[in-house]
Amino acid sequence: MKLTLVFFAVCVSVALTAIIEEEEKPACACTMDHTPVCGADGKTYGNDCMRKCNDVRLLHSGKCENDLCVCTMDYEPVCGDDGVTYTNDCSRECAGSNNAHDGICDDSK
């Protein structure tokens, strides 16, 4: 019984520490500037500010060569700031584009 209580106390302590650490992270506010950078995690970020907000080391400027993205085939179109309509938000992020708006891009511009 005592071992169970000790185990429970340790679990609660670890959970509370994780919650407190999450709350201590400052909020990030980045511009929608599209200047892709490659993070050390192998992901392409829309700009350097977005990379820093995710606390990832910079690998190089530009898109990652072997960016590993796996997206669903759900059709929920979004328009990227590059003027391309993407199948869904995941495919837009994989392309390194920022979200201009939900829905199909207006080709009449």
TrEMBL record:
Transmembrane segments: none annotated. Residues 1-17 form the signal peptide. InterPro entries: Kazal_dom, Kazal_dom_sf, Serpin. Coiled coil: none annotated. Pfam families: Kazal_1 (PF00050). CDD domains: KAZAL_FS. One of its GO terms (cellular component) is extracellular space. Keywords: Signal. Residues 22-57, 58-107 form the Kazal-like domain. PANTHER family: GEO10195P1-RELATED, SERINE-TYPE ENDOPEPTIDASE INHIBITOR. This is Double-headed protease inhibitor, submandibular gland. It comes from Mizuhopecten yessoensis (Japanese scallop).
